[in-house]
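User: Reviewer 2 asked us to show a designed sequence for the structure in our supplementary figure. I'm pasting the structure tokens here. Could you produce the per-position amino acids so we can include them in the response letter?
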């Protein structure tokens, strides 16, 4: 009878270990999945006010200053009409036919933006 009792304890112990491993695996997968989902909730999204309409896209030319990066330029210039900073950087790169994030001070970039106009209701 003691061998049956010992067998049940080992079986119970193995079952508990499997349950713990399963729970940890699910938690890790949830954490991994939360990364891309967090991009859907952006804090730096620029949105036009309800009483404003976006005009056609406009462009301005800026000189790249020492220490500038696409990220800093995007943060300084992004306005309504773009989903988030990453979307805006993609637009800047596309406008300027950039294949990488490397920019050089003294060069110029064409920066897209939307003007807003008050809507006449």
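Assistant: Here is a per-position design you can include in the supplement:
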């Amino acid at each position: 009878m003691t061998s049956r009792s010992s067998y049940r304890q080992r079986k119970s112990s193995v079952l508990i270990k499997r349950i713990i491993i399963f729970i940890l695996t699910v938690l890790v997968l949830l954490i991994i999945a939360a990364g891309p989902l967090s991009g859907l909730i952006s804090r730096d999204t620029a949105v036009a006010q309800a009483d404003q309409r976006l005009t056609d896209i406009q462009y301005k030319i800026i000189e790249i200053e020492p220490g500038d990066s696409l990220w800093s330029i995007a943060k300084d210039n992004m306005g309504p009409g773009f989903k988030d900073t990453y979307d805006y950087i993609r637009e800047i790169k596309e406008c300027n036919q950039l294949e990488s994030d490397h920019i050089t001070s003294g060069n110029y970039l064409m920066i897209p933006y939307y003007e807003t106009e008050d809507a006449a209701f």
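For the response letter, you might also mention the following. The chain has two domains: 1-41, 52-118. Confidence is low (pLDDT under 50) at residues 40-51.
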